[in-house]
Amino acid sequence: MKIAVVGLGYWGPNLVRNFLSIDGVEGVVACDTLPRRLENIRKKFPTVETTSSFDDIVWRDDIEGVVVSTPVSTHYPLGMRVLKAGKHLLLEKPMASTTTEAEELLDLAYSKMLTLMVDHTFVYTSAVQKMKELITKGDIGDVLYFDSVRVNLGLFQHDTNVIWDLAPHDISIMDYLIDGKPVAVSCVGVNHFSEYEDVAYVTVHFAEKLIAQFHVNWLSPVKVRKILLGGTKLMVVYDDMEASEKIKVYDRGVDVKGEDAVYKKLVQYRTGDMYSPNIDTGEALARMATEFVDCINTGKPSISDGQAGVNVVKVLEAANISIKAGGRRVDLSYLSKSNSRSLISIPTFSN
Amino acid sequence: MKIAVVGLGYWGPNLVRNFLSIDGVEGVVACDTLPRRLENIRKKFPTVETTSSFDDIVWRDDIEGVVVSTPVSTHYPLGMRVLKAGKHLLLEKPMASTTTEAEELLDLAYSKMLTLMVDHTFVYTSAVQKMKELITKGDIGDVLYFDSVRVNLGLFQHDTNVIWDLAPHDISIMDYLIDGKPVAVSCVGVNHFSEYEDVAYVTVHFAEKLIAQFHVNWLSPVKVRKILLGGTKLMVVYDDMEASEKIKVYDRGVDVKGEDAVYKKLVQYRTGDMYSPNIDTGEALARMATEFVDCINTGKPSISDGQAGVNVVKVLEAANISIKAGGRRVDLSYLSKSNSRSLISIPTFSN
Amino acid sequence: MKIAVVGLGYWGPNLVRNFLSIDGVEGVVACDTLPRRLENIRKKFPTVETTSSFDDIVWRDDIEGVVVSTPVSTHYPLGMRVLKAGKHLLLEKPMASTTTEAEELLDLAYSKMLTLMVDHTFVYTSAVQKMKELITKGDIGDVLYFDSVRVNLGLFQHDTNVIWDLAPHDISIMDYLIDGKPVAVSCVGVNHFSEYEDVAYVTVHFAEKLIAQFHVNWLSPVKVRKILLGGTKLMVVYDDMEASEKIKVYDRGVDVKGEDAVYKKLVQYRTGDMYSPNIDTGEALARMATEFVDCINTGKPSISDGQAGVNVVKVLEAANISIKAGGRRVDLSYLSKSNSRSLISIPTFSN
Amino acid sequence: MKIAVVGLGYWGPNLVRNFLSIDGVEGVVACDTLPRRLENIRKKFPTVETTSSFDDIVWRDDIEGVVVSTPVSTHYPLGMRVLKAGKHLLLEKPMASTTTEAEELLDLAYSKMLTLMVDHTFVYTSAVQKMKELITKGDIGDVLYFDSVRVNLGLFQHDTNVIWDLAPHDISIMDYLIDGKPVAVSCVGVNHFSEYEDVAYVTVHFAEKLIAQFHVNWLSPVKVRKILLGGTKLMVVYDDMEASEKIKVYDRGVDVKGEDAVYKKLVQYRTGDMYSPNIDTGEALARMATEFVDCINTGKPSISDGQAGVNVVKVLEAANISIKAGGRRVDLSYLSKSNSRSLISIPTFSN
Hints:
globular; 31% helix; nine-stranded mixed β-sheet; alpha/beta; Rossmann fold; Dihydrodipicolinate Reductase, domain 2
């Protein structure tokens, strides 16, 4: 099997490197329109074939899977061509610019029985895997809230806001970990220096008694990557800036005794031990790449499949609508394919 | 001058202790309806006079100032009686249950030329004073955002939500530090165990390009008290859980060159030194108590005066309305006295 | 039973307060030669009887136990009088200025069957108790090393060095935790500003393959109180400056397979989970005071008895000899009563 | 100019990579006796010439500088051959196994006017450069102590102890930063699992009132790399595990007023601000490699020259002698070339 990597900017070379070292991948073909980038790849990875023609990639018979690591606005057109050509597709996150586009990609992949994956790298980290395990085994109990902070100084994007830049990581983690049903999104923020917001707070509302919030910020003097996950049985702090002890699991919570317990002041706090599972620090990207090859070979579903990609895009799109509407709650059902036209008629909220 | 302290629950005894040691305070009279609490005060502070009669406090001629440290629902009736009796008034935070009540107290104090203060203790800390100094001197430049996190495990209140319990501290700090004009509030959250929310995010929108957010949470396994303040020139992290180095000032930010700078990618990051000013750890409550006595004696305005109290209550009340309306943006002007009736007609937001 | 507290400087009032609240203690008598201190005690604790006469304390029949919290040079003469008067004795740490004095106190208490305790407060903390439990249950395996750092800025003492000021805490913890047999002490350090050392490193050598080191320093810009305890099965970090998570237990270590394993490179690292037991933060001093009363009542041995006091003084005295001898190793057996004369003949080490 | 790198184990490939990217270096020749390592280099760096013959390296005319990154026991013989062949020499740290060897290398380089450098990488970090700047400008005042901790779990070496493995880094930093004259070394430690010590404390005594200590440990559950540097004017904490804020400078210290100030209790503590200079995180190894090329070209002295190498080896050798002698103080003058024979007669210290 040969894999093509399209788009060799910041992230593409990492994808090339990872696919090169996967057993079963016979060759990697790298594609970009900039000759400088192709040359750079040839220098670093002499065995990689390069081309500046996307058509080449699409029509060559020996390429089974295509990885698209180009700007998000091109994911849909490029991805559709890949799928139409009958090739398996891995899209860089976020999957597409709109829910409609993402869902079309998903439908096409489904109808053609092709693997469609999105590079939600973080769900392949040992830290997130550990959290998933705690949730799946029931150790955490019911999830009460998911709070994420991803802030740092820059890097300002000039074609998108801080939400589309930073939030996909944490939204994909939330989507992976939490079984609840997101029903609406609200989002507030400010654009200080351009039309694009640089500080934002995205909230996901659920059908269940559960809330998720994402603080993303390009203007923070310190770099923070932290998730707080509260459950009825255990609570977890995931601090990605820690060299070790990234995950801390607290045997803490609230026990409510009886139906009317709170009114009767029968809320009791549990304050037990904390433990920090030892987690390996292998490269998540390597695991993601391996999963793409496995899914192609076996047809098995991926933990970051097209549906996961759609879920993330839906929240991002809703956040964009909400922030322009002053934080108004945007129902996610409006963003589904059949309903998507109705978005046009949503009036701008004026207070 | 004698000072009366009414309400001797958790916080009252601290007020008694602090007023006892202020020069110029000749005596402290402590008042509560529970005999056990009065006895406790007499044991700890043998020189303090005690009474179970609030009428006593109001009508005694030798008491010049009254400190009301009772449940918030009683602040308005008790405070009005104190002011009507011509005595100076210090209210525990939050100042009142509604903006209307708070404004009536403020108006009465104003018309009777009495000192009206609210115990926003945190604005008297050296840390907040240092931040104020940096802002006033112009060192920070324009404030871009104010982000606060105040989370811990419990203590569940059975008559109020986490917003009214934890947010007044940070809202009063924001009100003190930031000169911008708050225009609206939105708030989202969840009540997991009772009718009262235990996790909430309060956002204050400003007329300026500025946003403030407050994360309050009774269900966090770890205790966090942290404020991030971004300015165009400097950025500050205030971590109240640090034993020393509570305040860190970062010479970091964004320089935008030219009108269309961002589009032209002329945004430049500054990443300079950090410094942590040495701040004393004297008791803020002692300074607040001293200021009350000073204000009584001199008529000078306080940094936590009645207007500050009104400002805080307004945000809290708006947050309560917003959270019930699914996060809808609530215009603060609706909460002003003259407009307050109109609140009744605000429909519950249904999505 | 009445308890007398002699010496009301920095620590004495804390002892008074704690003994006052112990069931079974009918009264506390406070003694100091400075009238100001006595007055201070009467003001704070109206029920406490005061006296400026140590003779009073010694000869009164109603006083069963005497707590001596005076400068260390007076522990021996005052302590001997207390014991000779047939009263139980609690000495502030360190127990005495020399091993000889400490041992005489111990012998006298033993022969008169009186309780003799030393206020090694730290061994009563939940953190140290937890470590003791881990060691006693065998969870830690063989102890490999004990490394302690206790540094801060000041407070310079003008009658003793940093070793006698800061090291007793950690030496008493080591003495309590470790079963090994200390055989020698070496110590290096510098006196920058007076005849008394302000930076020092004390090493305790054991008969076993085990080493303990104590870094004490009055010239550190940051306050550190940290102990590293390495065992063959588990390793512990005790950081007393942490608000919570003071104790972290690591399932890490080295497994050596076979007799000649290391030579054959069969050393294997274990890197497992970390856990942080939840420990209560009750006052250790209260527990120590309670134990003194219990020991008086029941005759049971204390975890900080006279022998523990002797052990700590022995290390301190040896450290003082070693530091003057340029770090020379001082055999602890020289400091035993019978051998103590021979110390005189130890030549000053000249390099 | 061509540069040869001899020894392609763990560190060698890093040296190859760095020398490859230096302007003025026309080619890198890599040398090792293991074919597998040579192949590995050819794969990663296709432009690098490889050879298994050290003779080749020594006799080729086009190679000006040779980097020796082999086990320490071979530094002397290989280094002597390089110098005798008239080539410039860069030795991996530590420079040699004994002071005598190191001094012979230094003498030969000196007499042949060749550049001799040792790869003390840490002195090229921005953090250490910043500390040097503070000392050189006089900001720190007189240095009072240097305390270093470098501990982690493993990696056990099977041919040397923890001192020779971990301490060279910190000793070279100390040698670079501190102008005082080291006069003696004492060292204590334990070998738990083999003949080689795995926990050790090295102390360097100075002619001045100044002490340096190095805690090195292969058995620590946590990784610590921390230096505390106390001066009369400022104090510095250098924590290499911090992602940012590696250096913190504290305006803290002790002011002594008058000759007999301490006795008169006139010691005053200064507790001022802390600041953390922003330091770049460029690769120190690249700077070291560049300096080697510069020194070859210009004959300028290096900050990690042969004398620095000798200084470090002297402390290491003395530490080894001291630890075997139970911590006895070893005079550094014994280790000078002329005196080195006398070491043989130093009796094993028995207490």
